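Researcher: Here's a chain I'd like modeled. Treat it as a single chain, no partners, no ligands.
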Amino acid sequence: MTLDEIKNKLDIVEVVQRYVKLKRVGRYFSGLCPFHKETKPSFYVSPEMQIFKCFGCNVGGDVIKFLMQIENLTYPQVLEKIKNEYGLNIEISKEKTKSIEEKKIMEINYSALKFFRQEIKKQSSVLDYLKKRGLKEKTINDFEIGFSPGNTLLRDYLYSQGYSYELIKKAGLLDHQNFDRFQSRIIFPLRDEKGKLVGFTGRIFPENLSGPKYLNTPETLIFKKSQFLYGLYYSKDNILLQRKVILVEGQFDFLLGWQNNLKNLVAISGSALTDDHLRKLKKYTSTVVLAFDNDASGFHASLRANLMLQKLGFNVLKLIYQGKDLAEHFFLKEEIKEEKFIDYLLNYLLNNYQDKREILNIFLPQIKNLPPLEIDFYLNLLQSNLEINKEILEKELKNIFEPVLPLKVEEKIIVEEK
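Model: Modeled as a single isolated chain. Structure tokens:
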């Protein structure tokens, strides 16, 4: 069955109605967009052309694109879903070949993990470092932390297991010179939400070696950094149970949080926060607690995240803790609490900024998309604290047509090799 035949067999209106309440409007069907927060319908489906389009967030396409977006699936995964749920006999040779290669890459990853786990047992200095950072032996073992010595030791091991250099490279385990990609690095395995081993993150060790501090597996058939959330496989049940997720920056924040009974965490782990990340979290909760680093770049990353989360209809909180990051906090053993992000932000700005214009430039875009009653509440607080007439504040807010994602003071994502 060809791709066109698959699309012809599926009625896009019937498929979309499984996720969105639609109402006929002339030649089209309309409803509230599932991909962003809105109160007036801007999402349309054309039964004639068999396409959908949202005029609010500009997402559009055919029935396959819709299923990929709404379910956060890759192309092979959506074909498998269609085959299983809609009873279509899908046999596409290219996809079959691709699927076989994906399985091979997964197989190589498991062999590599076995190697990394063997190597860390030989490295007492690595284990001492991890324990000094606060990780217990059980955590190290439960999360399968390993070590890559470098040179060509992993390559040679995998080759001895029967894997070709070409396939090892496709798995992202070799560099452009066919040396091991991870040279003298502590290895954190990356498991997707189903538990599949899709890649690795390597932290340089010792720290005085040259090269990026962290390094991820590059994009492969099975690993997409912009969609991956570290720890989701372990925490998803707790996220569902607690109805909220704590979002942190890296592996150490996650591991020490988990070890200290914060079981509903995930880490963005080497990527700027993306809509794909948030749509994946939307399957589990509508409340996100931001716990980025307590520095300038973490602050600006939180501002950016709040705007993205608002757009997708999340309730946004802020984790208040002491220390430069969550990992350091657990050494201090101070109180930890949650606060509504906008309340935290206003208090932070009033206590740390003197310039009224600067406060408004940061704060007003963050409340632009809130419900009218909430906007009115915060404008009253601004009027009281800054002694600025409310009409002026309303005019300033009105002049913000679309909140701009704030620039970061410094880049917080993991630096990759070129």
